[in-house]
């Protein structure tokens, strides 16, 4: 989670590639990321993330236990939006297709960096989504793909808010509908087709890996 927050804050600076022409740029941006990671506010955010771990797990469990098959994400979307509002970010809304969007304003605010986790799971309506806890592991349909992503987004937003990190660009925390199966990325496609809000960079948090 700590490494991911650094990635979020610096993603508009760091475009990794491996051609000979860009090795110098790669080194430059790597150094810049390391420098940013030493800043007091970023270090504070790392501590906030650790302090929030019980809440992250609570969000993870409670959101997992809300069924959200493709085309039926509304109840989970409403709950996710409520939790974003409770964090106190600048604006939260649900668009006409059902995506949840939360805005954290940047001090320039000329660009929008989106961080997305999808609201739906691949499992059909009626699936038992009760979470079982065995030792330190959560077991349930959809617990990793992608409810873990939603829990991470809530923690990232709260860590940024509590540590008073000020980013240059706006950050959009987004829960999208219709990623799985016949959903065919309909939430993401809707955002880019309508271009409101305009999105300049996109980070998707999906599945069990980083």
Structural commentary:
The longest helix is centred in the last third of the chain and has 16 residues, at 147-162. Helix 3 (40-51) packs across helix 6 (147-162), helix 4 (53-64) runs antiparallel to helix 6 (147-162) and helix 5 runs parallel beside helix 6 (147-162). The N and C termini lie close together (8 Å). Strand 4 (132-134) and strand 5 form a beta hairpin. The strands form two sheets. Strands 1-2-6-3-7 form a five-stranded mixed beta sheet, with helices on both faces. The relative contact order is 0.20. The chain has seven helices and seven strands, in the order H-H-H-H-H-E-E-E-E-E-H-E-H-E. The protein has helices spanning 2-10, 23-37, 40-51, 53-64, 74-87, 147-162, 186-194, and strands at 91-94, 100-104, 112-118, 132-134, 137-139, 170-176, 201-204. It is α/β, with parallel strands linked by helices.
Strand and helix layout:
Elements: H1 2-10, H2 23-37, H3 40-51, H4 53-64, H5 74-87, E1 91-94, E2 100-104, E3 112-118, E4 132-134, E5 137-139, H6 147-162, E6 170-176, H7 186-194, E7 201-204
Parallel strand pairs: 3-6, 3-7
Antiparallel strand pairs: 1-2, 2-6, 4-5
Helix pairs in contact: 3-6, 4-6, 5-6
Largest sheet: 5 strands, mixed
The Cα radius of gyration reads 17 Å
- Write down the secondary-structure element order: HHHHHEEEEEHEHE
Backbone structural class: alpha/beta
Determine the mean pLDDT: 90
State the low-pLDDT regions, or none: 11-18
> In angstroms, what separates the terminal alpha carbons?
8 Å
Give a count of the beta strands, DSSP E runs of length 2 or more: 7
Shape: globular
Percent of residues in helices comes to 40-55%
For the biggest β-sheet, the strand order reads 1-2-6-3-7
| DSSP summary: helix tally | 7
